[in-house]
Design a protein that fits this description.
By secondary structure, the chain is an alpha+beta fold. The strands form two sheets. It has a four-stranded antiparallel sheet. Strands 5-6 form a two-stranded antiparallel ribbon.
Length: 99
């Protein structure tokens, strides 16, 4: 699995900073990919609950720990799953997530 940060959108002026959105692409081992988005606030909540060195968890940690003024440095950054990671994988035949 791999996660790539494609872009980010600042919060509207009247909104709190935590609404800042990041658009990213997830690519699976099966060649599937999809574009998603996540707000800074959601990333902050999820990052503490994700175990291990998976690609998605690494991406969220990078988002949460990067200073606002440096969000552009995250663009095109690619996060890969470590080889020894036991990250959940999608079983195509059964259409479910398994360990």
């Amino acid at each position: 699995m791999r996660a790539i940060i494609i872009s980010h959108e600042p919060s509207p002026p009247e909104s709190p900073v935590e609404i800042h959105r990041f658009i990213f692409q997830i690519e699976t081992e099966f060649g599937d990919s999809s574009n998603q988005q996540i707000s800074l606030r959601t990333a902050q909540v999820i990052v503490d609950k994700l175990p291990g060195p998976g690609a998605f968890a690494k991406m969220l940690r990078a988002i949460v720990t990067t200073d606002r003024a440096r969000y552009d440095s995250l663009l095109s950054r690619t996060f890969l799953r470590d080889k020894d990671d036991h990250e959940l994988a999608f079983e195509r035949d059964r259409g479910e997530v398994c360990a």
